[in-house]
Amino acid sequence: MNTETTPGLPRREPELLGQTVLVIGGSSGIGLETARRARAEGAGVILTGRHPERLEQPARELNALSTSAFDATDPDALARFFDSLAKPIDHVMVTAGDPPYGSLLDVTPEDARRLLSGRQVLPVDVARAAAGKMRPPGSLIFMGSTAHRRPRIGEGIISTVSVATPTLIANLALELAPVRVNLVAPGFVDTALSASLLGDNLEARRRELRATLPIGRVVGPADVAALAVHLMINTAVTGATFDIDGGQQLVT
């Protein structure tokens, strides 16, 4: 009888060891899952959100370096937060900001300007505030959408924003280099936000997606987080948009 044992595979070192990851919108959903994944890769994490009480449990779970509560869509609050950072950061993941739903003609002119500009202005504000605080070849990662790229009645604002954002991200990548800038574009993701938007229709939507998506299951926050952390690690990627929707746009 052969008693020799097979040598184990070499242990992989965490790929973000010694780096700092800031998650803007890190109290739940995709942001929190990204923080968890980054922490598992050895990063220290900083979490921000609008509500301080919602940051308490994630901060304890992840032994966060710090937390801060503010509205990321307020450019002055955003600038003050980045100015307060004592040490450089390596990566910023931004999941903050409400989806800009609305019909182009049914909303007021003021709401149209706010909704159309919100998702476009936030990346610029973050990039401007973060520029002097980041260590190359770190990265900024923003959120887009594949589910709203096609024109639809009642979704004119979000579809316009969804198509325009990749060009904005590519331009930021040129201006912020050598810091990298990328866009993650999910379709439906099974989060608390999705549950609040769909209400009683949530389970029906899940069943529909399981039956129609090529992957045969619903995309979750951990799927998006895995892609975001990969973009932090892979220093050859910048100015790109990465779709992660389980093939939703192929069958819609």
| Mean pLDDT across residues | 92
The level of helicity is 40-55%
Name the CATH architecture.
Answer: 3-Layer(aba) Sandwich
Total count of domains: 1
What is the N-to-C succession of helices and strands? EHEHEHEHEHEHHHEH
| Cα-to-Cα separation, first versus last residue | 58 Å
Largest sheet, order of strands side by side?
A: 3-2-1-4-5-6-7
CATH superfamily: NAD(P)-binding Rossmann-like Domain
What is the makeup of the main sheet? Answer: 7 strands, parallel
Features:
single chain; 252 residues; alpha/beta; Rossmann fold; 9 helices; 7 strands; 44% helix
Describe the overall structure:
Helices cover about 45% and strands about 15% of the residues. The protein is of the alpha/beta class and about 250 residues long. It has one domain: Rossmann fold (3-Layer(aba) Sandwich), CATH 3.40.50. It has a seven-stranded parallel beta sheet, sandwiched between helices. Strand 4, helix 4 and strand 5 form a beta-alpha-beta unit. Helix 4 runs parallel beside helix 5. The radius of gyration is 19 Å and the shape is globular. The mean pLDDT is about 90.
Q: What is the fold's blueprint, element by element?
A:
Blueprint: E1 20-24, H1 29-40, E2 44-49, H2 52-62, E3 66-69, H3 75-84, E4 89-94, H4 109-130, E5 134-143, H5 156-176, E6 180-186, H6 192-198, H7 202-212, H8 221-233, E7 241-244, H9 248-251
Parallel strand pairs: 1-2, 1-4, 2-3, 4-5, 5-6, 6-7
Helix pairs in contact: 1-8, 3-4, 4-5
